[in-house]
Amino acid sequence: MQQRNESIGIIYGDVGSTEFNFIVDGHNLRKFDYVTAPHKEGYILAQVMDVRRYSDLKFQDATTLRSDEALPHIKSNVSAYADVIGYRDKSGYLQAPRTPFDAGSRITLAHEDLIRHVLGLHHDKSNGAYLGLLKGHNLPVYLNIDALVQKHICILAKTGGGKSYVCGVLVEELFKKKIPMVIIDTHGEYMSLTKPNSDRKDKKNMEKFGIKPRQYADQLVGFSPLESRGNIKHLTLNGMNLEAREIIDLLHAKLSGPQIGVLYQSIKEMKEYKQRYTIRDIIEAVTRSKSNARWNVIASLESLDSIGVFSEKGTTTDELVRRGRCSIINMKGVPPDIQDVVVARLTKELFDDRKAGKIPPFLLIVEEAHNYCPERGFGTAVSSHMLRTIASEGRKFGMGLCIVSQRPAKVDKNIISQCNTNIILKVTNPNDLKAIIQSVEGLTNQTYNEIQRLPIGVALISGASIQIPIMMDVRTRETSHGGKSVTIFKDGETIDFKPKIPKAPAPPPQPKEHVAEKSVKKNNVTEKARAVNRVAKRLGWVDTDDPDKTIELLTEEALKMKENVYKYLDSLAQLGKNFCYETDPKCIKCPMKDGCRYRASQGRKKGFFKR
After folding, report:
1. What's the average model confidence in pLDDT over 234-261?
2. CATH architecture classification, 526-606
3. What is the CATH architecture assignment of 7-66+73-119?
């Protein structure tokens, strides 16, 4: 298969069976090029890992030369270091030579047929996903679809390294093969798959990869736990007849032994009189318990019920998983604790129905996976257990898993180790690099250094049908990329940016007897709420006179800043009590006077700032 006979160098020095050095004969050889070396067992494929130029210009000679002085003739030679990949035996298995190479053997550039044969790049459009070109060659890289979906995938990169871009390329390829997908879209990036790529630079690159702009709107359906808006449907979870163990798995606050006993006993007693029951029914049943442990159980159940995503029916799994369709679970604007519960419950329903054969085989893609399956010591998530189960057992039942993360060190190592296909882009954090090397098979300490130097758009691929890790130029997206960084400074001018405050989930339905009480409370505004509204409006934080609306907006801001909501509101109430009176406020003594719009406006009226 090796038909190029032009020699580019000669092996020299001490030679082993897994690596060798060779002098380069006037050829523009580059790092990561593939070469072949003759051996007793046939032509052996190797990869250039380093290229160095040696010269007779010594340090002492260089120090005597002036910057404006003409350089003398410098004699130099180029040497390359190559790692041996191996050859295919008669049975098609990759083998490494068992004896050293001969010094003086002539090295030639590897032919693409040999590269494809030895590396295992034998898949094509009919059974593969086209992700890009082999680095330095016009050789398409197709990954086996079955290996991708059945044996799990992980895509790892630093922030801005292109992980979501590569995942988008993969999704485009799976669309073409009609593979069902469910994407946990933490930041709402994947709805852009409905739009063709209109970027001018990308259109030029498309010729190199042999693709054209395309959109997949007819194969994509969006869901959100918040509410229906536009083409996005409202995602709800089935909250009927939850068992005690299911509730315990969804609670962030773990229950003690007596509390678990109260929960089990309450559900058991309720089942004797009700065939169908909701979380609200469970709360009422626990309230009737005489145990003192019931109070913490009630608080935990109220917290679970208040997220507003449980309903009597819920979105069915066959609405989410259909052949040729991708369902995107858009989590943009959803609080992290609600995201965690949604992922935990949704993945359990999908896994149970896949095992029962109610839905076809599919791929579950989890963006920002470190939030949903963190490594021990980096926080907890109620969805961790279910994702670990899918990683270890999903292959047997036809449920593939693809995790995408910018912090490999924070992702559960058990899940990464279960992924047979690894797509790694640029990573520089030492802890993340260490986690990748320890969890991904086939990577060496030398790979550790190369991952740090990967340019944007180049990925290291390990696993699938490929025998050894390879470097690949990721192809251009056919669709628009929704994960682009936001431009905040352009042509010398800052761009006005007004953040949109996401709407909170709809509150859970209340029993009929509480409706009248709720309407009374709405008009019963406390003095503290009025003080908070007054202070926030004078500071310019809100523009409403409705204390209830102000409390709602400030609560969302406190949650975004991860502040204690009531301490945050209380600090504003204290300002209203001590300084910001309704009439004649003590602005001069107020600690917030420098940023207060009210004080500034009063100062202009009285002429304080005319100097």
Report:
1. 91
2. Orthogonal Bundle (1.10)
3. Beta Barrel (2.40)
